[in-house]
């Protein structure tokens, strides 16, 4: 089986922001090879918002690591255009830098010349509504503000694909709700493609154009839904709740199978 | 039937900005600086009282011991200081030792830093010399004085050699533990931004390891100073110039207990002063800027 992680050439017009082609991943354990991801094929269209949904053990984070290029698939291939940006559950901002300098580091590593960095960083902070937070230290910011700086730092990479690994899971419900609106707005404004991993069904439906449900051990694509509810949505909206109930039922069915041996 | 009048804000653009600003304001705690009075009572007063107690005990003990060759009076020690000051020797003693100590420490820094980085990053080197390096920390550096004298003779290089052997393991070990404690999340975040290889070391690993490194420097200075004093006391030789260690040794041979006390106090004070003037502020700055220092 071919194990390739190819980067498409920038000038080549691609009809997807990420293409996962029969991707599998196994890890060596004392009990032999353990299959974590099995035959995952996903195309993320440019500008598309896709959520990956699954219970624990479905390999969601492993899958994002593969797409981010932090790890290699055991089988199949992953194609992305350039290096995707990755946002984590913890903000992962560097505490020795200010909010602004964190963003500037991403710009610097991307090769943005020094005179332009400051303005670009301020612009990105304004995009996440943190104007004036440039000189703030990470510990001076609240959890929601940190995640927004982390989002700005990810956007600074100017990748056309943003991977999000349960980025709002550690936030309180009020903050999370506000950030759902923010990520929807920023996604619409920037036209970036998003692959968003979560175990929160309502969050998945609230945000995505497409919800992909993964089964657990090994992670396989169980089912897929297209979400036709117009944005902006709210998590309390009836159509969001309805679809969430449907998806939750399928998810529970998947989980139940594991208790039956 | 009660009707709830709600106007859902359907515009994810404008409506949320103010909610967000409100949340940000609610969740950002206001922090003020402590007043001078608070700082004085909590930080400055306690050591002054402790010093006063030590002096009081000394004054009380002096007539009980009643033997100036064992316990000199505080006054006699004071006049020993005064005499050295008036002769213009006091600053000379201090400078001789401090310049040796700081120069030696600087060399230790130049050797310990790359060594620590190698041990932290290269598995083979870590397995080979990691245990020796941490073991060396528990070897009293005074043990290095006899071989250093034999190898290098009674001169300044021998002093520097002893300082290096004392301080390099501390500095290197501090850096190793600093690198070990870098959260893997930072490394992953760095890699997704393109900070790999040397860029990753420079932009992520080293700054993340800074607190451990600075702790190593602090300990390295303490070890440098101790090693130097051991070397100066044992290898006291007139041509070497009189540092604080030699002053102590000279006082002992002259059975001048007031001068012995003077030398010990000087060694103590200089060691503390360098730490307070250089290393503690450095450490506090590193920790505070990362929010790792609890105020109070």
From TrEMBL, chain A:
Q: In the UniProt record, does the keyword Zinc occur?
A: no
Q: Which PANTHER family match?
A: ALIPHATIC SULFONATES IMPORT ATP-BINDING PROTEIN SSUB, TAURINE IMPORT ATP-BINDING PROTEIN-RELATED
**Does the record's keyword annotation contain Nucleotide-binding?**
yes
Keywords assigned by UniProt?
A: ATP-binding, Nucleotide-binding, Transport
Q: Name one GO molecular function term.
A: ATP binding
**By what name is this protein known?**
NitT/TauT family transport system ATP-binding protein
Note the InterPro entries from the entry: AAA+_ATPase, ABC_transporter-like_ATP-bd, ABC_transporter-like_CS, ABC_transporter_ATP-bind, P-loop_NTPase
Instruction: Please tell me the species this chain comes from.
Output: Streptomyces pseudovenezuelae
This protein's source sits in the domain of life called Bacteria
Which ranges carry the ABC transporter domain?
A: 18-243
Question: SUPFAM superfamilies this protein is in?
Answer: P-loop containing nucleoside triphosphate hydrolases
UniProtKB/TrEMBL annotation, chain B:
Localization of this protein: Cell membrane
Give residue ranges for domain ABC transmembrane type-1.
94-278
* Region: Disordered, residue numbers: 1-20
According to its UniProt entry, this protein's organism is Streptomyces pseudovenezuelae
| Gene3D superfamilies assigned | MetI-like
Q: Does the keyword Cell membrane apply?
A: yes
* Keywords assigned by UniProt, alphabetized: Cell membrane, Membrane, Transmembrane, Transmembrane helix, Transport
Q: Does the keyword Transmembrane apply?
A: yes
| The protein, known as | NitT/TauT family transport system permease protein
Pfam families membership? BPD_transp_1
PANTHER family membership: ALKANE SULFONATE ABC TRANSPORTER-RELATED, MEMBRANE SUBUNIT (PTHR30151), TRANSPORT SYSTEM INTEGRAL MEMBRANE PROTEIN (PTHR30151:SF40)
How does this protein lie in the membrane? Answer: Multi-pass membrane protein
